[in-house]
Amino acid sequence: MIHCNWINFQFENEALTQERFEEMMDDHFQAVKLDETGFPQYIWTSNFVFIVIRRVKLIEEVEFKQIPRNPACE
User: Fold this and answer.
1) Structure confidence by residue, pLDDT tens digits, 49-74
2) Distances, alpha carbon 59 to alpha carbons 32, 56, 62, in Å
3) Given 11, 16, 52, 74, which is the most exposed site by the fewest CB atoms within 10 A?
4) pTM score, two decimals?
């Protein structure tokens, strides 16, 4: 399901807020798609789409893959 409001989620025993995400990515949040467990799969910002990859080994890790969105053509 796609949500237009930020939904806090946890990784590495910390909650990731909208403000922290926007600061990390230097972009503005627009929407998020959650999986069946309520964890983000995709996060849309003004300029990018982030694919969220969750890895659990000894500790939980999250990787954000950034792909361009709406490229400007000249």
Assistant:
1) 999 988 776 666 778 887 767 645 45
2) 24, 6, 10
3) 74
4) 0.78
